[in-house]
Design brief:
The chain is an alpha+beta fold. It has 10 helices and 12 strands.
Length: about 280
């Protein structure tokens, strides 16, 4: 899986070709998610979302409250750490969804480890690859279904940077995913392709890289089609278990900060946003 990190520092993202087995695992997983979304609401809500102090949590969430910083969607987080709890809730038709997620988490491991090894070497982030490997039980596979019945051009996912280490954008059903360019400070279309994943740094990696890699702000805007029909997405949040987490209780949701606030902030000030720093 050869790839270069030249654009990671300048653009805040890198496109990586899928190995064949990973591409097939992504296709199976997203097909299972789409089927799951059409199950009865109570059957889905049985998978109660539980936080676990390892980055976020796991389970199903339904978000229907409208507001300028709120996304109308349903989502499901799956981690290996909570997999057995979720599997115990599943029935005969929801268990295949969880199994496909577990297969995908395992299929991603070689690519995630290769990426972390390259980042450690090229940006001198000592111990990163080992930390990422140890953190595998807490990697978060996040499935999203944004609802339709929106207005074209509105933000259906508010501008934000991710809280963990780095994020793999595995699947986008439609256009509309945008990133806030580090150099021009303008919104641009995220280059997501069927046979590639896009990897972007998140807040923990900006901390660990001493600011050399910026957590990339991104959002989702409704197109003419998705405003009517909605859209599906799938990402993987790779959290770092030995690295301090963003202090949400003190500084609020990342969405409340100005877009791209972290692009030019001094590293000493940025570090204050994290627990225990």
């Amino acid at each position: 899986m050869p790839f270069s990190l030249e654009e990671l520092q300048d653009l805040g993202l890198v496109n990586v070709n899928y190995p064949e087995n990973l591409r097939k695992a992504v296709e199976r997983a997203i097909a299972s998610w789409k089927s799951f979304c059409y199950f009865p609401r109570e059957e889905k809500k049985a998978f109660l979302f539980l936080e676990d102090n390892h980055g976020d949590g796991a389970g199903y969430e339904l978000k229907e409250e409208k507001g300028s910083k709120k996304d109308l969607k349903e989502n499901f987080h799956i981690t290996l750490y909570q997999y057995e709890r979720l599997a115990a809730i599943a029935n005969q038709r929801t268990l295949p969804f969880l199994n496909d997620a577990k297969i995908l988490l395992d299929a991603m491991e070689p690519l995630i480890l290769q990426f972390s090894e390259k980042v450690e070497k090229e940006f001198h982030v000592k111990g990163l690859a080992e930390e990422v490997k140890l953190s595998k039980p807490y990697w978060i596979l996040r499935y999203l279904h944004y609802f339709g019945d929106r207005q074209e051009g509105v933000e259906i996912a508010s501008p934000h940077a991710d809280k963990g280490g780095f994020t793999l954008h595995l699947y986008e059903s439609d256009e509309g995913l945008q990133y806030f360019c580090i150099t021009t400070r303008q919104w641009k279309a995220m280059p997501v392709y069927e046979k590639q994943t896009v990897i972007i740094p998140a807040l923990q990696l900006q901390l660990r890289s001493e600011g050399n890699l910026k957590a990339l702000y991104h959002r989702v805007v409704a197109t003419k089609e998705t405003a009517r029909t909605g859209r599906f997405s799938m990402v993987c949040f790779v959290t770092f278990q030995k690295t301090p987490m963003y202090n949400k209780n003190r500084y609020g949701n990342v969405q409340t900060h100005d877009t791209g606030f972290n692009y030019s902030i001094p590293q000493s000030e940025f570090a204050k946003l994290f627990l225990g720093v």
